[in-house]
Amino acid sequence: MYKFEKQDFGLKLTISGDLTEQEISGMTVELKSLVGAIRQPFSIFVDAREVMTLNQSVFHLLSECQRIVKDAGRQSAAIVVNSPILKSQGQRITLDSGSTEAVRFIYSDKTEGWEEVAMDWILNGIEPDPELAVTKL
After folding, report:
1. CATH number, domain with residue 39
2. How many domains does the structure of the chain reveal?
3. Cα dihedral sign, 126-127-130-134
4. Is the distance from CB of 28 to CB of 68 less than 8 angstroms?
């Protein structure tokens, strides 16, 4: 499941469950349309707390999504996860996409006020505390 919401800063993407290739393909089409219609530069907040461990077959599709937002003028990204496995998968996808600058991963279960921490990064460029298991690529 995925849901995009336009925000003053850009986009919020909430993803959950077991993401399939078909679902991510649909998400990619919608993403292309959305980034063309929002003010540039923009930021993206990804709430991936409820995502199941990703099947490797979807990595290339998610890398493409990251390339789309980077090429469209993404300024910063906060990706909220709840497991080391998902964080590791997200890092690999981000590295494969070539869009590592200004991307921060935040553990929701280890970071008190994780949403505020993510928004501080997106809106104000305030680096999350590395003691809170936040990963900078």
Report:
1. 3.30.750.24
2. 1
3. positive
4. yes
User: Is residue 48 within 8 Å of 15, Cβ to Cβ?
Assistant: yes
- pTM of the shown model: 0.91
For residues 88 and 84, give the distance between their C-alpha atoms in angstroms, rounded to a whole number.
6
Q: Which amino acid is residue 11, in one-letter code?
A: L
Q: What's the CA gap between 125 and 105, in Å, rounded?
A: 14
Q: What is the pLDDT along the chain (137 residues), one digit of tens a residue?
A: 999 999 999 999 999 999 999 999 999 999 999 998 998 899 999 999 999 989 999 999 999 999 999 999 999 999 999 988 998 899 899 888 888 888 999 989 888 899 999 999 999 999 987 766 455 55
Q: How far apart are CA 93 and CA 130, in angstroms?
A: 21
Under 8 Å between Cβ of 30 and 64: no
Placement of tokens 């090429």 in the chain: 71
CB 62 within 8 A of CB 29: no
Domain that holds residue 92: 2-136
Q: What is the DSSP letter of 82?
A: S
